[in-house]
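Predict structure. Chain length: 134.
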Amino acid sequence: MNKKIKNDRLASNGFHVHYLPYADDIRLLPKNDTTRAANDEVELFKNVIRGLKFKYRSDKFENPALQTLWRNIEATALNKGEPDEFVDLTIPSVENQNRKIAGFVDELKQMIFPPGYVMGTTKKSAAKRKVGFN
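Prediction complete.
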């Protein structure tokens, strides 16, 4: 490289190869007309998102890997049997989230699932054949 001119190079970095498709590989995809959500559905989901939002402050969360390391070092130095318990605040509290959106759950279920749907049950399929090897 020439020291006087920074961008002057004696050897190139090579070249890029772009594979061009054959004419048979190029095709037009049909346009899918997707259904849009109704305004009341959008508003309901906006309310759910608002309920789950919180103001993030980095000083409220400790690094779980570092805290576990420091607790292990402390336990080793003080000859403790096990390190102190560490509560990982980076994992969201499901109970807290459920409490925040409790008012919207019934509306969401009615909107998403068909009438008469029972959660946790599946339709019984026809009995499967047993294939045995003799």
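Summary: Residues 39-52 form the longest helix (14 residues).
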